[in-house]
Amino acid sequence: MKRILTLLILISSTLHAGNAWPGIVQQSRPYLVEIEYYEAMDSPESLSKKREVKRQLSGILFGDEGLIITHSSIFPAQLNFLNASLYGSSELPRDITVRLADGKTIPATFVGKDDDYHVAFIRLDMKKPPRGVKFNTRYRPQIGDKLLLLHLLNSSYQNAPHLQELRINAVQQQLRPLYLADGETRALSFGLVMNGKGVPLGVAYTRTGSMGTSASGLIRMRMASALKELLKNPPVYTRKKRDNKKWLGITMQPFTRAMARYYSADSINGILINTIMEGSPAQQAGLQIGDVITSLGGIRVIAEKYEDMDDFRDRIRSFPRDSAEVRFWREGSLLKAMVHLTATPISQFLADSYEIKSLGFSVKALTKDILLAKNMDFDTHGVWISQVERAGSADLSGLRIGDILLKINNTPIETLDNLKKMMETIDREKPDYISLFIRRGAETQFIFIKNLAARR
Amino acid sequence: MKKHVTALLLFILFPGVLLTAQSMDRQIQQAKDKVFPALVHIQPVKEIFSGGEKQKMQVTGSGVIISADGYLVTNNHVAEKAHYVRCTLSSRQEVTARVIGLDPWTDLAVLKLDLEEAGLDEVPYASFGNSRNVDVGQVVMALGSPLGLSRSLSMGVISSVDRYFEDVGDMISPFNLWLQTDAAINPGNSGGPLINLKGEIIGINARAVVFGENLGFAIPSNIVKFVVRQILEKGAVERSYIGISWQEINDFRKYLHQPSLEGVLVAAVDRNSPAERAGVRPGDLVTAIKGRMVSAVYREELPRIRLMVANQKVGAPLKLNIVRDGKALSVTVVTGEQGKFQGTEFNARKWGLSLEELTPRLIKYFQLENASGVLVSGVKSGSPADKADMRRGDIITLFDGKAVNDLETFKQYYQKATTDSTKSVMLMLKVNKRNRFALIEGKKKK
User: Fold this and answer.
1) Distance between CA atoms of B143 and B141, rounded to whole angstroms?
2) Burial of B334 (0-12, 13-18, 19+ CB in 10 A)
3) Which one of A56, A222, A341, A405 is CB 3.0 to 4.6 Å from A246, fit for a cystine?
4) What is the β-pairing status of strands B285-289 and B317-324?
């Protein structure tokens, strides 16, 4: 009896006692929420059938406005044109519900995401949301720091809160430092990182890509000190044409020591421009192929390996101002130029699309990622076939996903508006066959599609 | 009673079956005896570039002798890049052969046996039949060395006389339809004859379907005769080029509601081609070439039209009658050269790099603006080129800042640069629409 009493005392006075964990769990559990949502699985082979898959994630409620931070895989579409894939869904997560610690289920809406930090934000749809966590943003992490990680186990463990101790085992130093800790946490989708006293410091996840592959045995941590701006002003996804990142519009490679020797420019460090894209900020600033960028916005650029360029790319993407001074080396002289940094072109996920049900295909406006994938000139305008209904009219006539649509019924199609207008005429006149002139690889060809909406 | 009837029927039918079987057997034997002595087992030693290095490889194919002085026909894919060709006649005598001419566009090759060296005056040969008279259901035999099993014979029927294949990579047949047969054809049968019961060559076996059963394909003998004659006369088949991709009009007819429309549709016009210069556009309907009506309702009719254009003299004016937007007009295209199928190859040995000349086919495939540059066809692992991250498929456009117009230019620069092994060379590569610099590092001075 006495023992039990002692135990109770120990539990209640956690701060002084040896075991502080129960108190920490009790204090932090309310910030951890379960998120349930439906991901639309677009099929490139079906216009009508929309498959939805139920998914679960965990998140952290923060601030006073009902905002929840979670993993960016809640909306897997790549917004940036450079690493976008051709297929996948551009639909936002649907029917998001959040289960709070007290068991209440509250609907929520998607706010936005940042693919560089792998975080996304959703907001509770309720008048007086419960108070969220306040992160300490002054913490400066170091390798070896002892931390606590709290997350929710999955439903087979009744979503029990799981607390574990870990250390920062590795630091990936870059513009957005990533802290890595050893730990097997398969159930972890998103967790809260705290110090030993339960002070919230940041977030943790195991997934690496937005598609949810996880690196085995490594927990990734982002500290609130780095997420400060995002937490204050979460990115807002508007579906309107902009990735909120900047770009220069070049492809580049490290200017290696061997190259410096070749050019007798041993003192020059930087990145070598090998391609300049049409209409890009770099082109407008007069940069040329073969130039070596030595500094950006007053900060020196050093790149000896390919990985070193990520830092430069990151710097450009999150450059705080609209223009930057670029210093570069060209044929023996050091020059400088002001570059007006514009928003990165969007990926196909953000491109407008248009469905033509009667013919069984849909098209999208050409985005830069498609132009790169199709080996086309970077300033090409037009539309491409993004979906072809399996065994539909267009499919049977030989139309394929990826074909570039050039003409319909001999009328050039350069924009979705052109196409919409053309389709209005077709809907009115209901011809029984429609002619598409398309480009596939190096060849063009005609495809004649039977119009199922034709008059008999 | 019923039993008796059955027995009676059998009795009546049986001798009949026996009779046809006997005569069929005799026909098969006679046909075989005519061609079998002319059958050749071919084992070329090829020199190919693989992984940035020159390598030797032996393959097995078949062939058939077509003249007493030792000319023989086989497939281009058997004889191409052959450095040395060893043939075994059906008498099992070994004779070497040299390549007289290759035609990748029809996958045919003509070789000549070295009879003198073998101590032979003449050899037995087979003669061609007329492939136009071949019909579906006709009994045929395939002779050759399936999977290296020499002097084999298989039998079947003609399954189709107008099989059409789209070009896929290097497997092309723009100018011919194929004879399809269910006579067993396997790798090694390539280049062997498909014969009729008269013992005439009606086709040269060239393709089979992997994992398919009894789907073999032969190049019709009339195409073979034409190609052989051209190779014997000129060393190669001369073909003209105008740069038009044709499309059949079956669906176009439906689209226009003109079921009796005749002509052939222009699907694509190559960049910088004679047709583009003459103003031909995709969507034009060509109704006559050089005054002769042309029409392709189905795609099986396309090879004939391609052949008709190809057989024109290079540099000659070719009048096309065109219907464009309902109006008739005519344009004159000055034909150009077809260009090489396979570019010259070069081994930049010191850099561990094999290179290939850019041919019109490659220029089109890579969608290049012009013909300047050379293609990297292989990179040796661990070589200076590999260390510079060069990859197969890169196109070298600049060499120390100087334009690489063609393979010859590259060779000159390369030979000059490599006389000093300590010198580094900066190359500019084109990879799709992007460029990349590659530094081939010279050896460090001691």
Assistant:
1) 7
2) middle
3) A341
4) antiparallel
Q: How large is the C-alpha radius of gyration of chain B? A: 27
* Per-residue DSSP letter, A303: -
Domain coverage including residue A443: 351-450
Smallest CA–CA separation between A265 and chain B, in Å? 14
Which residues of chain B are at the A interface, by a Cβ-Cβ cutoff of 8 Å? 245, 247, 251-252, 254-255, 265, 267-268, 282-283, 325, 364-367, 424, 426, 428, 432-437, 439, 441
CA A24 to centroid of chain Cα atoms: 32
Residue A19 inside a domain? The answer is no
Residue B266 lies in a domain: yes
Range of B425's domain? Answer: 345-440
Lowest mean pLDDT among A203-207, A262-266, B355-359: A203-207
Cα dist from B46 to B19, B43, B79, B228, whole Å: 49, 9, 8, 22
**A367 CA: distance to closest CA in chain B (Å):** 15
pLDDT digits (tens, 9 = 90+) for B189-243: 999 999 999 999 999 999 988 788 899 999 999 999 999 999 999 999 999 999 9
Interface contact A446-B364, CB threshold 8 A: no
CATH of the domain at B196: 2.40.10.10
CB-based contact B282 A256, cutoff 8 Å: no
Residues A266 and A260: beta-carbon distance below 8 Å: yes
CB A225 within 8 A of CB A179: no
- Tell me if B446 is assigned to some domain: no
A258 neighbourhood in chain B, CB within 8 Å: 424, 439, 441
